[in-house]
Each structure stands twice: as C-alpha cells, then as structure tokens.
Amino acid sequence: MIVRLAVAVAAVIAIAWLAVLLRDHQLETSASNELLGKPAPSAAAFAREMARVRDSGLLDPGSDADLVRAKALISRNRTREAGRVAEDIVRREPDNLEAWYTLLFTRQIDHRPTADVLRAIRRIDPLGTRSQR
After folding, report:
1. Using alpha carbons only, what angle is made at residue 16 by residues 1 and 2, rounded to the nearest 5 degrees?
2. How far is 53 from 46, CA to CA, in rounded Å?
3. Of 16, 19, 18, 45, nearest in space to 33 by CA
4. 82-109 pLDDT, tens digit each
5. Confidence class of residue 43 from pLDDT cuts 50, 70 and 90?
6. Residue 131 pLDDT
7. CATH topology of domain 2-132
8. How remote is the C-alpha of 77 from its chain's centroid?
C-alpha cells in the first residue's frame, strides 16, 4: 500500500513539473515572437514581454529564455546588457555555442576584445559547422 502511494505521489509530482515546463515553453515562445517579431514592440510591450520571458524560466534549467532576453536586448541596442546576459549563460553553460556567438556579437558591436570568445567558439565548434548554416 505504501509503495503504491509513493508511486502515485511521484507521478503527480512528475506531471505537475511537466505542466510547469509546458507553460514555461509556451510563455517563452509567445514572448519571443512578440519581442523579436516585426514591427518592434513599444517600450511598455517590450517591458511586459521581457517579464514574461523571465517568468518562463521558472523551473526550466535551460538557457533558452536567457538567450531570448539577450537577443531582445540587442534588438533594442542595449548590447552591454545583452552581453552581461550572454556572459552569465556561458558561465553556467560553457559549451553553449549560441550564447558564445551572442556574446561575440555584443562585443563586436561595443568594440570590446573578442579573442577569448573566439577561442571558446573554436573549442566547441573546431570545424566551424555553425557558420556554414
């Protein structure tokens, strides 16, 4: 009886967690479409969608929401802030190629050193396969 109860509780927890992840994914996708779509959102809509992107990372250990935030900040010419978001991602996920490319872009725009970023990109993608897409 106790084993069945434990299995039932574990199943409920797993379903609840999956429901939260689904909600997070839907929030992130919707906010991403608004933030990165055309035409650019107003300042109020931008702030609202950025809050939705932050909320979408509730129980999601991935960095997709943070990458959306960085790209949205770049679209608003807030490259220093976007660079800080990308730096945070690569600190947590040193093999995240998309984050490294985002960081490279922000540094190039701000005329900051890029040698360390280029080394990391070559380490992760030595054949440059991403740049061929």
Report:
1. 10
2. 10
3. 45
4. 999 999 999 999 999 999 999 999 999 9
5. confident
6. 58
7. 1.25.40
8. 18
